[in-house]
Each structure stands twice: as C-alpha cells, then as structure tokens.
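Good morning C.,

I know you're traveling, so I'll keep this short. The sequence:
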Amino acid sequence: MNLNELASQYEDELFEHVVPFWLTNSRDHEFGGYFTCLDRTGQVFDTDKFIWLQGRQVWLFSMLCNRVEQRAEWLECARRGGQFLRTHGHNGDYDFYFSVSRDGAPLVQPYNIFSNVFAAMGFGQLALATGDDAYSQVALRTFERIIERQNNPKGVYNKVVPGTRDLKNFALPMILCNLALEIEHILSAETVETTIERAIHEVLEVFYRPELGLIVENVTKDNELCDSFDGRLLNPGHAIEAMAFIMDLSARLNRPELANTAVEITLKTLDYAWDKQYGGIFYFLDRKGYPPQQLEWDQKLWWVHIETLVSLVKGYRLTGSQACLDWFETMHDYTWSHFRDSEYPEWFGYLNRRGEVLLPLKGGKWKGCFHLPRGFYEVWRTLQCC
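The tokens, ready to paste straight into the viewer:
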C-alpha cells in the first residue's frame, strides 16, 4: 500500500463527493437546520429533524472551518444548524429533544443524553469557528447538564424498574473521552482532567473485561458482568471506536501505554467480530455465543467500518503495529468495495450479512453528516503523518 496515494484517495472522496453532497442537499433554506432523510440521489424523503444529526452536522462543518479552511460556504452551513439548534433544539433547560418538526416544534422528548452530547460538540466547534462566546456558553451549559445526568441519563424516561437489574451502559463514558477534548477550550483544566480520567477508568477498567479480552456494552452498577441479554451484549463498533478516542488521549497525555492497550483491544475485537464467511464486522454479538436479541445483529453498518479504519490507522501511527496496517488494508478493501455508491455521491449505510445493500438511503434517522466525513478526515490526516 502506498500511504500517500491512500491519503489522497480519502481526501478526494471527502471534499469532492461527500461534503458537497451534504452542502447541496441537506440545508433547509426556509426554516434553518438540516434535512437528513435523503434518498440515494439526495432527494428529501422526510422533513423531521433529529437533534443528534443536527448537532453532528454543526460540528462537522465547524470542524472543517477550524482545521482545514475558513470557507464561507462551510461557515454558513454551520451557522444555519447552530442557530436552529439553539432556538428550537432544547427545552429551555439545555436538555435537547430527540427530534423536532421541520419548523422546530418538539416531537420527541429529551430522553436521550446523546442529543446533549452532540449539541455540546457542535456548539463547541461553532464557537471556535465564529468567535461568538454565546455558542461557548450554550456548549458549557449543555455539558453541565450531561454531567448532572450521567448517573441516570434517561431520568424520568427510564423504563427500567429500579432496584431489579440496574445496568450502566458503555456509550456515555466512551463518548466523554472524545467530548472532553472537543470542548477543552471552554472547560476548566480541572474539569477536563477529571472527565478524562474518569472516562479512561470506565472504558479500560470497568467495561473492558480482561477475562474476555473484550469490551462489554453493559455492566451492573457494581461493575460486574451480568448474565442477561443486555449483560452479554457486545457492540464491536462501539468498542473499536472508543479505542480511537483512547489513542487520542494517549497522544494528548503523552501516555503511550494507553495506545498500546487500545491497539491490543482493537485487534482482539476484530478477530472476534469479523465475519469469516462473508467479510465485514458484525453489528451485535453475544459474549457467550448465544443468539443476540437484536434482529439486525448480522448487518454490516457504515459507521462500524469507517470508525474501524480510523482506529487502525491511528494505531499504526502511534505504535507501528504491522497487524494494524494489515487489518487496515483488509478493512479498506471491504469498505470501499461494499459501501461506496459508484453512481451517486455519499455512501450506503446498511448492508445485509452478505454485503448487499439493504437500504439505498444516504441519510435518515441515524445516518447523517458525521461518521463518513469525520472518518475520511481522520484517516486522511493520520495517513499524512505516517
């Protein structure tokens, strides 16, 4: 593999195909914000606005302004989403709804803390891109709500009967590894350090189980394994994506042992979750090998494979692992040959186990302007440094 040629391949796909797709098709010029339900050609097929994806797209275009170039079109796109999100996205107490209508009327209550997470990320980068302190204040207040809610993220919307099988989930400590760095410029040094150290502890000492060599998706409140559907659940994409965040922290903190551990976990997860019959990474697995409860368990999803490329290339850069480079080549070949649409811009998101397209959409309720362009950016920049 020629790494310079690969870097150019990811750069070209990002700036010539993926970013223009979202600029052209997603902006709502009447009400603000973004359409994310886009068919194969980019036509809007539903106008509801999902707050996760609004915040993520604000982040993406703000990030490009901050780290690549202050293009007027990118900044306008970021502002469009930020203004809509600030006005319509939350309940007044900076808990962000799950979804709103096209004109911003609330549709689904703020039950999901990740609406807050991606809003904070978006506003943090938008503050840097615009120099507007008002966006910093929104990001800070939203982050404070995340910390206030972290021990009971769903609050009154939690369906579980308390005191019977209280589990905690991997996703929040995973994303806090990343969020603390994304909005470091608006947090106190003490808050950053506390958030980072707690997240590292949770990821590597609670959810990573050395007896399995794997990261589990749920543990008990006492940090123990639970023999139930949720307790046995593995989400390989989450585990591998988290390792990229740990690698970023390794570089940030000058702690190379974190990168070594992250590489070890990434490779172990890939060995376990790779579909040896058809290729690609399974979406969900059961740590005891039982049938998962998720009917979509064997699907191949875009974000899982994109985030794996990021983790592998970062692992190679930080540790020189030949296994990371070998796996990167395998993942690159699978991802580009199965998810890329050769006729229209942007990539497919959902494949069946055999690697055939299940849904021809380019965006929807969960897929938006985030994992693909962010992943291409990360791979491009990391390859340039190798």
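Safe travels,
E.
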